[in-house]
Amino acid sequence: MRTAAVAALIALSVAAMGFGLQAAGLRRTPQANVVAERAATWLLRYRFATSTLHLGGRMVHGRCFHGWFEGRHDHPAHGTILILDNGTSVRAIDPSTLLSQGPRTLLPSSALELAGCTHVLGSRIAELAQFDNHVLLTRTSILGQPALALRFRRLTLFVSAKTDRPLGVTLNGVASSIRFSAITPVAARALGTTE
Amino acid sequence: MTELAIASPTRLFEWVRTNAWVAGWWAASRALVLGTTAIMHVVGPRGLIGRDEQAHVFGALGAWDGRWYRTVAANGYLLEPGRQSDPAFFPLYPLLLRALHGFGLGYLAAGVVLSQLAFLTALVAFEVLTRELFGPSFARRTVVYLALFPMGFVFSMAYPESVVLCAIALAAVAALRGRWIAAAILMAVGSLARPETLFVSIPLLALALRERVPRQRGLAFGAVIAPFAALGSFALYLALTLHDPLAWTHAERAWGRQFTPFGLITAIRALPRAVEGNPWVLRDVAFFLVYLALLWLALRAKAPRTWVAAGAIVAILPTFSGSFHSIGRFGLLAPAAFWGLGVLGASRRTDTAIRAVSAVLLVGGTVSLAWVFP
Predict the structure, then answer these.
(1) B295-339 pLDDT, tens per residue?
(2) Contact present, B220 and B208 (Cβ < 8 Å)
(3) Considering the entire predicted model, what is its pTM?
(4) May I ask the CATH class of domain A31-190?
(5) Overall domain count for chain B
(6) Could you say which of A95, B196, B262, B360 is the most buried, measured as most Cβ atoms within 10 Å of its Cβ?
(7) Cβ contact (<8 Å) for B214 and A5?
């Protein structure tokens, strides 16, 4: 009985010291990284995004889809397709192929992020949430609604202050607003998907 | 008082003099690893080493999981459901990185310094443990093999393996000497850095059962269960900060590690596809077989069965996650495998061969960091 009591006391002491060490020694994750992680979760929950990009005084609308579509040599490819109404289209095929057609007003990778392409921007934000030690979180407003701005080294992501849902991006001086929705099979096929 | 004051430095000097050879082998083996890394920094190869790490002369040693330990040290834990995230990495090593960072060292430099010092201490403790179990000449040979072991470049990386080996060896020595409170603390320290420490409870349980002093028995069993209590403290911390006490196992799944009763069969079946994806997995398969062979040799040489059992679990259990990846590294925390190597090196010829081959493979393993995680 005494042996068990002493052993239990040792175990409890060790647990208490271990917990104390972690609580005192480890940093609580900065709020900016937590918000970024929630924004990434929002993005990765969807496969379809529509967007409005403010390009040189013009408004360009975009539709972006993540899934299966016809790739090179008619093989089905997994990735992201972005179609802008200025005639630009971008295909990001896993793992690292980026194909762009039409007028080149933006770098293809920037276009995908600005258009809120869910798995491109979502993966990027998720990685930054984990590894960016210098992300800044500031309060702002978008269309009169309270919002938060997550300022990373290269891009700024605006999210809803209430839900952390991504609302827009600014990157290299270009701003965009983004919306997510479920996609119907008809709309998906109109984007050239094979689903 | 005067006698004590004089005796202590004399004893310390004598201890340093008799153990200087351990430091010599530590310095020689680390010179191979650090020298190779420095050469890689200047002339390459750099392969897949990240840009942040490439800026540092010993950057290759901070690559791969080192980046995750640094992010825990800098930012704390953040669970990203369904994605690879940092709760998969145990808290002690990031805690130590933070402590050294407080003295002005960068996180990568802190990791490299910490691992070298911990490995020196681990070698000294391992020598004491092996000497107590097998005698001095066997201990000498085994320490040399541990210092030069081909996967031993991991002990120089910003990974917790050196700290854990140090904790395991010191805990075992403390237990052998009946210092159970120290053993409990060291076992807790080890299990807050790597879960392999839990299996050291098996040899400690055997020692606890042999404890004859009734007053000590409770402390001894406390030391046996201490690593489980420490693991519980990690779960409690994760529950309070991430609202998920099992966040580390959930994060592990994103790396494809999920334990199942038929995991070993899955790992064997999936091997051809794993090799197709990453041929380096063959290195882990080779080390898996080497560890099993060495443990068998240790068993034949009458090494304590409990240590061999703990080593076998350390080597075999990871395969039940359905993969052979990283077993070369995991096995480094099985002291009995090195005792098996000590048995193999009994003749002068095999001893020389083991030293020469290990040194060459140690350099090769360090270079492999440019392309593959250990």
Answers:
(1) 999 999 999 999 999 999 999 999 999 999 999 999 999 999 999
(2) yes
(3) 0.92
(4) mainly beta
(5) 1
(6) B196
(7) no
